[in-house]
Structures are given as C-alpha cells and as structure tokens.
Amino acid sequence: VTVNVATTGVADSTTLYFTESGSATSDDIDPVSGSFVITSNAGSFDIDVKPGATAGRTIIIEIRTGSTGGPIVDTAETVTITLPTIDPDDTTVNEGDTVTYTVTGPDGTYGVRIGSASTATASDIGWPDSYDTVTVTAGTGSIAVTITEDIGTEGSETLILELLDAPWPDNTTV
C-alpha cells in the first residue's frame, strides 16, 4: 500500500511521522510506524502487507508532527486488508476440457501450485511441474488449465490450486 500525503505550506525537508491505528498489527503489515520527508508539499511511504496477514483487518494511518507520538494532523482513509482468491469457472470437467481459474486481489504476479489436498497431479493437467504463475492486473487475472485426455480411466479426481505470494520457487501460501 502506498500512502501519498499532500500538504499545504509545509517547508521542504520537513519530516512527518505516521502510525497505524486500525486493527492491523505488525503480524499483518510492515512498518506500523515511521517517518517520511516532505518535498514540494508532498511525501509518500509504503506499507507492505505480509504473507499470512489476516483478511478484513483495517489499516488506518495517522499523520503526525514531531514524532510517532506527536499530535495527529491528518488521518488517511481506512484500507481493509484483502487477500487474493482463486476460483474455478466450473467444478466438474472431463478429460480434454479446460477450466479457467479466476484470481482476484491485489495486482502482482503470484505463483500457482497444485494443492496438497489434490488427487490430480501435474501430468493430469499437462504442466511440466506442479506449479505455474498468474498475473493480476486491475484486480483480476486468470489461468486456464486443460485436463489431460489420456487412455486410462482413473475415476474422479480433485484439482485444488493454491496461490503463492510470489512466483515459484518461493512457496509461501497466501
């Protein structure tokens, strides 16, 4: 999350401070407080949502003068932590069919892997490995998976795809 701060009449090189006062904790975001410098009546800073953050928690940034304990001079709009989701467009498909998984959430490139609860394998979907990537732009992305048509009859199989917070090989599940 990038926080942009616009000021009026604040001298260049002035240091302002911020603190987080919503329900998000240091387990959810980093940093929870800090400082930034004003240049031409503007300043900005980034707050990173950590892997494993709790969806639904809020980030409320208070802008302060003097220190992180100084007087509050402004409060930014509340941001609610949302985590990416992945959903198939069909839940029952046959070999040879394609199922498209839609990913919604913050923009970025995510790793996608076959989940441990799946009975399907990489060879069942034609992937050379058990992972791929998906890019989310403007809040949405998709990945199409074609179920391999083979000559054997296996019966029903389950394919569960999991999102990772970064492309492979970082395997931190979102």
Please, could you describe this protein's structure?
- By secondary structure, the protein is mainly β.
- It has 1 helix and 16 strands.
- The longest helix has 4 residues, at 122-125.
- 18% of the residues are buried.
- The two termini are 17 Å apart.
- The strands form 6 sheets. The chain has a 4-stranded antiparallel β-sheet with strand order 4-2-8-9, with no helix packed on it. Strands 11-12-15 form a 3-stranded antiparallel β-sheet, with no helix packed on it.
- Strand 8 and strand 9 form a beta hairpin.
Sequence-ordered SSE layout with sheet pairings:
Layout: E1 2-6, E2 15-20, E3 29-30, E4 33-37, E5 42-46, E6 48-49, E7 58-59, E8 61-64, E9 72-75, E10 79-80, E11 85-88, E12 98-104, E13 108-114, H1 122-125, E14 131-136, E15 140-146, E16 161-164
Antiparallel strand pairs: 1-5, 2-4, 2-8, 3-6, 7-10, 8-9, 11-12, 12-15, 13-14, 13-16
